[in-house]
Specification:
about 375 residues; Rieske Iron-sulfur Protein; Naphthalene 1,2-dioxygenase Alpha Subunit, Chain A, domain 1; 7-stranded antiparallel β-sheet; binds FE2/S2 (inorganic) cluster; binds fe (ii) ion
Length: about 375
């Protein structure tokens, strides 16, 4: 199938703005670990598309996503990355004070202000939790997160709810690495859609998952031969640089998956790996047409992490070395994307790229204007 996908999609500032508006500001975005805001009043500041959002723990089990902009004269309420607001959020400019729900509760000389002042609550965004992550959606009419991820999970794993079995809510971040890559987010994401490059680029990962030498990785599309996961190499006990497991198998992982690697891409920008002893989450945050922040987290069971001999380094090193190889290749593509000769040819191993592009184009075609919810 031929789809319209000009190389300017990787270089144009204008196209980048369109993607922010129609993809990242209208879909559910995985933005933080729920445990980062465990205490009441605690917050983290995150970017969603072009917006700054405060995730605030209002009460046990309740999170609010508040747009980081005062309803008086528009000042950013908060410039810190994280902290604790206590019981309320006070704008440092003129002192308007908002509850953790975003309601205006006090303003200097309130008695002298017109009655409608009291209605100037903070703008809010949709928020939900899944896999121990906080997901935000700026679209007030958004369908539930399940509608975004459910079909992709079923397409990939059929009736087997692989993500559900790894107990991600309970897991803790043992290691985080953030990469700043000078390449468009789609070049990076498309790289992870295929494993045709694996035999050439990734000797380390092919050592641990020998089936990837076929050019079909575990996310090689619904009809890929490894749809049901990839087996660890003989002699390997874990998905790590040395081939050794870092911890015991996670409690919910069945015997049948004791030596299996599962992976899935959740449009638009999340990549998850499920390994018997841990889970890895990689998300791609667009920064500019040719710049992407990649946040990678390795999640382990708290009990494993309590072991004084525990270390996530060996497991993290395998993904780290592989990701650096990937990013180097992606930067090569980015460098060429401005050429008038730039064009592509896809092998059968790369069919998931086309599926991803179709989804992107579908989002870009949704033109109606959206208004933020109050
Ligand atoms: S801008 Fe926030 S109180 Fe004036
Ligand atoms: Fe790769």
């Amino acid at each position: 199938m031929t789809i319209n996908w000009p190389p300017t999609y990787y270089t144009s500032e204008q196209h980048f703005t369109l993607e922010q508006e129609r993809i990242f500001e209208r879909s559910w975005q995985c933005v933080a670990r729920s445990s980062e805001i465990a205490e009441v009043g605690s917050f983290v500041r995150v970017n969603v598309g072009r917006e700054s959002v405060l995730l605030v723990r209002k009460a046990a089990g309740e999170i609010r996503a508040l747009i980081n902009l005062c309803r008086h004269r528009g000042a950013r309420l908060c410039l810190e990355d994280k902290g604790n607001f206590g019981g309320s959020i006070r704008c440092p400019y003129h002192g308007w004070t908002f509850s953790l729900d975003g309601h205006l509760t006090a303003a200097p000389f309130m008695r002298d202000l017109p009655p409608e002042t009291k209605e100037r609550h903070l703008f809010t965004a949709g928020v939900t939790e899944w896999l121990g992550y906080v997901w935000v959606n700026l679209d007030p009419d958004a369908a539930p997160l399940e509608d975004q991820v459910g079909p992709l999970i079923r397409e990939r794993f059929g009736d087997d709810d692989v993500p559900g079995k790894y107990g991600c809510d309970e897991l803790r971040v043992a290691k985080e690495v953030v990469y700043e890559v000078p390449a468009n987010w789609k070049i990076l994401y498309e790289n992870f859609c295929e494993c045709y490059h694996c035999p050439t680029m990734h000797p380390e990962i092919c050592q641990i998952l020998p089936s990837w030498r076929t050019g079909y990785g575990t996310v090689s599309g619904p009809e890929g031969p490894l749809k049901r996961g990839s087996a660890l190499a003989e002699g390997a006990t874990g998905f790590s640089l040395s081939g050794k497991a870092a911890a015991a198998r996670l409690p919910g992982v069945p015997e049948g998956d004791a030596r299996t690697f599962h992976g899935i891409l959740l449009w638009p920008n999340v990549h998850l790996m499920f390994i018997p002893d841990h889970v890895m989450c990689m998300r791609f945050e667009p920064v500019g047409p040719d710049r992407t922040k990649v946040v990678t987290q390795w999640l382990f069971h708290p009990e494993a992490m309590n072991d004084p001999d525990f270390s996530p380094e060996d497991a993290a090193a395998l993904v780290d070395v592989t990701a650096r190889e990937d990013f180097e290749a992606c930067v090569r593509v980015q460098k060429a994307a401005g050429s008038r000769y730039f064009e592509e040819f896809h092998t059968p191993h790369e069919s998931l790229i086309v599926t991803f592009r179709e989804w992107v184009l579908e989002q870009l075609e949704k033109k109606e204007e959206k208004v933020l919810a109050i």
